[in-house]
């Protein structure tokens, strides 16, 4: 996903799509409805944004994706991840890389605590607004690591693309190790 100031192109420009693909994973970047090069109207309700991701993943035959969700895209990812059903987040996603997403204030610390998917929380050191609010909520996820990118703004991944891609590299290594370890009985 992408933030309001960018399009899906940011992940290609930074080399993130290529890095994920090098791990043998399907890497997809889309322009959210009403943003970037999308010809659709912006979705205004939480339900419509959650349904958009559900339909997108169904259409692409993707089950349990790993989501990268920066800034504004949180209004899409958070309702999808925090679906108010009895399932845990791990039953909806394989992982989450949260880059100061919006909409974390909608959910309680207890709701985040039930989200046990492998999570990396990444914020820029100089992001004193959305980043700090997101961190305060997302740190309640039990299976999380926190990364503060020094000398970086809200769009920390753009400020320091090399460090950003190192984070992606290590995340993928952990995911692959987890899959390999789970195959041993």
TrEMBL record:
It is found in: Cytoplasm; Membrane. The keyword Glycoprotein applies. Its main location: cytoplasm. Keywords: Cytoplasm, Glycoprotein, Hydrolase, Membrane, Signal-anchor, Transmembrane, Transmembrane helix. One of its GO terms (molecular function) is hydrolase activity. It is a single-pass type II membrane protein. SUPFAM superfamilies: alpha/beta-Hydrolases. The keyword Hydrolase applies. One of its GO terms (cellular component) is membrane. Possible role in granule neuron development. Belongs to the AB hydrolase superfamily. ABHD14 family. This is Protein ABHD14A. The lineage of its organism: Eukaryota, Metazoa, Spiralia, Lophotrochozoa, Annelida. The gene is 20216386.
């Amino acid at each position: 996903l992408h933030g309001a100031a960018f399009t899906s192109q940011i992940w290609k420009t930074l080399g993130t799509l290529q890095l994920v693909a090098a791990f043998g994973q399907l890497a997809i970047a889309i322009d959210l409805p009403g943003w970037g090069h999308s010809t659709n109207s912006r979705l205004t309700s939480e339900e419509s944004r959650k349904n958009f991701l559900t339909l997108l993943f169904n259409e692409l035959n993707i089950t349990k994706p790993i989501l990268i969700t920066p800034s504004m895209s949180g209004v899409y990812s958070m309702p999808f991840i925090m679906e108010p059903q009895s399932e845990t987040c791990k039953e909806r996603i394989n992982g989450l890389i949260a880059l100061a997403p919006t909409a974390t204030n909608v959910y309680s610390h207890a709701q985040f605590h039930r989200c046990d998917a492998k999570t990396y929380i990444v914020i820029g050191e100089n992001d004193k607004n959305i980043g700090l609010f997101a961190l305060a909520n997302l740190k309640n996820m039990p299976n999380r690591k926190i990364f503060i990118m020094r000398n970086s703004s809200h769009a920390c991944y753009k400020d320091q693309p090399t460090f950003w891609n190192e984070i992606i590299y290590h995340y993928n290594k952990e995911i692959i190790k987890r899959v390999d370890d789970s195959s041993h009985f």
